């Protein structure tokens, strides 16, 4: 009989897919953790602006985020050495402790700003260990054929948490101030840690002989290579592997091109259209709706056999959207473009991450995810600086054309690179 007609095999497939209870509970907990993070960020920003002013707040948030870059240098090595599940659990518990400490100290101390700065710096640093570990663990929970859909579901959970966390943070800050928000975020980390601890791998990690998720082989010494050596091995691997290196290059180009319109560009565009803050909020909502729609589409019709083609079309569409930003004269046109931009960036981001997870050697996957994350987190502030300079020197329209050219450069890289152009993720 056909396998699909055999109940046991059908049930086994369901248990291995992105809609299995194992994976749904994991992604749900990650979304809940993101909800707590978003609520905390609202409370953090609101308090800093009130206590220290907008300029100081921006500088503080930028400086505190630098610790993430430091952590990412070694975060992937830690995931590869110790196993992603253990890293995720320990990171969540440490972040919970930071939030409990922040809740306690802001409750009893009259000057909350130094406490919030320390807490924000520690959270950014610890989050740098969680990010590569979460990228490593998803391929261990899913069959290769389900990885695109699983990543789309994971992104959907994160975006849902972010969308709900903003209003929740605003409500909690009114109801109980910073201590209540910090306590709520601590609870979200406990939920995330419990979900990470309960996950069971579909395939065992090959990180190393002495990882917490995989015991050393019988008769083995349990010795591990030097940390610095493993760190350099990770960077060397990315430079040597042409497929992985090219994917990370495309990720950097797309982040450099598409971050400015979402971070600063929507505010400037709203001002140019005469719609003010309300218009900027609507543009951001349109982008979020497009990104959510993209996740749903990727779950229903994942671009597996034509992953390369979808990457070409997605980056090309992003470039066209960016160029059109310099031409529009109405809010309705802006909403349409932001919705399309959210959809296409969500689409090719899932494809690129899935390529990294599939193509990187399992024992190197954590370090590759760290390099990818470093590229993303470094590209965003660089893009924000560039957009300000370009708009000041050339004007809004010319700045958008410049970023459109960067997106089209990403398209050119994909088109001229055979492994990416003909990539399949089935």
Note down, in words, how this protein is organized:
There is one protein chain. Mean pLDDT is 83; it is low at 1-13 and 209-221. The chain has 14 helices and no strands. The chain is globular, with a radius of gyration of 22 Å. It is mostly helical and 426 residues long. The longest helix has 52 residues, at 147-198.
List keywords for this structure.
426 residues; mainly alpha; 14 helices; globular; disordered N terminus
Largest sheet descriptor: none
Q: How much is the average pLDDT?
A: 83
From the helix content, strand content and strand pairing, which structural class follows?
mainly alpha
Q: Share of helix among residues?
A: over 70%
Low-confidence stretches: 1-13, 209-221
- SS summary, helix count: 14
Element string (H = helix, E = strand):
HHHHHHHHHHHHHH
List the helices and strands and how they pair.
Blueprint: H1 7-16, H2 21-52, H3 54-82, H4 84-108, H5 112-141, H6 147-198, H7 227-240, H8 242-273, H9 276-300, H10 307-325, H11 331-359, H12 365-394, H13 396-416, H14 418-421
Helix pairs in contact: 2-3, 2-5, 2-6, 3-4, 3-5, 3-7, 3-12, 4-5, 4-6, 5-12, 6-9, 6-11, 8-9, 8-10, 8-11, 8-12, 8-13, 9-11, 10-11, 10-13, 12-13
